[in-house]
């Protein structure tokens, strides 16, 4: 059973388009995250949701909008895609706010290429 | 804010060599510390963790000790294998307001030659 899954795995699109990436976890976790990993492997947190409520919203263009329909899903919608949005996007989940338990489980990533 | 600093890579070693990847951190609170590993084409996986000073996390022959006095969490392995080739991320989780904020280092690429 896949713990954290993302779709699609690869996404190639043109500048100006709108696209979505979906994430689902079956671990029963109540906190989910989106990260962006650039070409140099630098991993930066974008958003975090706890029980469908936004709790972390780093400095990210408002073209990026997360949506959490329920605790098991956190989708990422991106409007007006730009070349600089090309990266690998990782979804992750964790259990609660306790420091011991905030080790995260990561999805396999979605490689977004904007042409 | 919090930050994690890792040695720059790539680190290139021969099989059975000793590995050290340095990691230091700054944090406003008392963070938990983690090492994650990312194999090519995959997501990150937790390798080991430590939650308080002097704790030693260990897994698959890797070890790291939480050193509060030097704010460090260096990763070590006595004898690396080709299969250890991956990118290693040091991370912390620190309380900020009502949430625990995860912060990652920039990753260190390890290449192990036969």
Structure, explained:
The complex is a heterodimer of chains A (115) and B (114). In chain A, 0% of the residues lie in helices and 55% in strands. Chain A contains no helices and 11 strands. In chain A, the strands form 2 sheets. In chain A, strands 2, 4, 5, 6, 9, 10 and 11 form a 7-stranded mixed beta sheet that branches. A 4-stranded antiparallel beta sheet of chain A has the order 1-3-8-7, with no helix packed on it. Chain B has 114 residues and is mainly β. In chain B, strands 2, 5, 6, 10, 11 and 12 form a 6-stranded mixed beta sheet that branches. In chain B, strands 3-9-8-7 form a 4-stranded antiparallel beta sheet, with no helix packed on it. In chain B, strands 1-4 form a two-stranded antiparallel sheet. Chain B starts with a strand and ends with a strand. At the A-B interface, strand 5 and strand 10 of A face strand 5, strand 6, strand 10 and strand 11 of B.
